[in-house]
Amino acid sequence: MKAADLAVFCDFDGTFSVQDVGSTLAQRHAAERRPAEWERFEKGEITAWEYNMAILDGLPVSEATTEAFLKTVELDPGASALLAWCGAHDIPFRILSDGFDLNLERLQKIHGVQFAYDANTLRYEDERWRIGAGYPNPTCDCGTGVCKRGRIQAYRAEHPGRRTVHIGNGRVSDLCGAQEADIAFAKDTLALVLEQRGHPFQRFETLFDVIAALEASD
Description:
The protein is an alpha/beta fold. The chain is built from 11 helices and 7 strands. It has a domain at 3-19 and 73-121 and 133-217: HAD superfamily/HAD-like (Rossmann fold, 3-Layer(aba) Sandwich). Helices cover 45% and strands 18% of the residues.
């Protein structure tokens, strides 16, 4: 594996950032609805995106309130270093997020970083969130608004010589991307599920670990 042959895809919430933006705001502003809707999701009665719609569409959070929270969101200690490393090696880097475009735009400005991304859409209507699915994939059982398997497959179809890397932390939105990629880095619930399924992956704590592993394999 050579660095020049790689393309890196990275989850945002809980991976590139420390906090999960949507989950934290839902805990603060829709806590009463979350247990029942999560139980429906766990039973397979609704998809991951339908869960998001039930909790986040119409969330009573204004743009100003969202902005104040985004200013408290921290990036992983190695986030900027990973962007710089990929840039120095001419490695395509893309955030694949089941979060929302406006939040990613603001967080780039807040932290002075730049990255390409695929995400769901967010707009404001009467001081409430209105959300839309970015890249759903009815052929994948992830049921998310942004199917990471689908986004990696689309990239691979246009760049057949590249080896894909997926970095993530969550069993819901990151599992299909980790299973699709040539190389998977995982932590938290994603690592637990991949281990249970016997799917190969490399553990990481911060994105510095990912850089070190990719450098060692170059």
